[in-house]
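User: I've been going back and forth on whether these two constructs are worth ordering. Before I decide, could you fold them both?

Assistant: Sure. I'll take them in the order you sent them. The first construct and its structure tokens:
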Amino acid sequence: MSFIAAHDFPAGLVLRVLGMAESSYYDRRARKVTPSRRELDDAVLLEQICKIRTAHEFAATYGSPRVWLELRRQGVRFGRKWVQRLRRSHGLWAPVCAAAGRAVRPGRTQPPPRPRTC
């Protein structure tokens, strides 16, 4: 795309040589100028997540479920996985505790020892 813009070649000719449809080129060029609805929604949600993280001292340790619940309390309706995707893509993870994420297994019984046979 930048090649076509930087040089004086006609777009139709270059796209025909590359085997691309002209409509794809012009659609992509238009998308660069105006962001999609999802990008706009992401920007709004990211701003609200950052406000939650700076709300008080421990808010930066919130995980995505707690951030999602806080957003719902404020009346913001986004999916939980949307919040997870946005936090992951912008590196807004909570600090990891040493014990966090480890499954605690219930105590297991040991089978009785086998008698020795020789």
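The second construct, handled the same way:
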Amino acid sequence: MTMKGWIARSLVAGSAATLVHFLFMYFKSRLGLLPAFQPYHSFQIALSRWVGSDVPAIVPWLLSFLNGMTLIGLLFGRVIERLPGRSGAAKGLSFGVIGWLLLNLIFFPLIDLGPFAVRVGAGIGPALLSFAMLLTYSIVLGIVYVALDQPGENRAQQSARLKSNL
């Protein structure tokens, strides 16, 4: 596996997962799920406070997009072989659970939502919604990354290679 191939797979998988994430958030909004839980708006407010001036609403969305398709995709590509699971979906699930804990224990408190977004006042809803969102993102990330790994391989060969990497 070449470095260029690893990077390309990471970026494509990160982009696909980010697209699914944005669709998830779009449907959250359209369906009116947890209207009090607006993490992008909370992030915008925190960014404005940190930089000392108003930050346009598009900025947190762009940062999330860039982070999801690049940094997180590249991180996943570097740690996939160390994650538990035998398939891209299982490895994505493992990665998503770790990401969900970091999101809820570090990022949400950082943007004044509190751990598991308890300050939203919507009970366990924000934690469950963020769990579903992160798992959707990370499972797609894992599936796409593994599917792009060796285009000439069939599923049995991919599975055997993943098992040998555990």
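Notes on the second construct follow. The mean pLDDT is 90. The radius of gyration is 17 Å.
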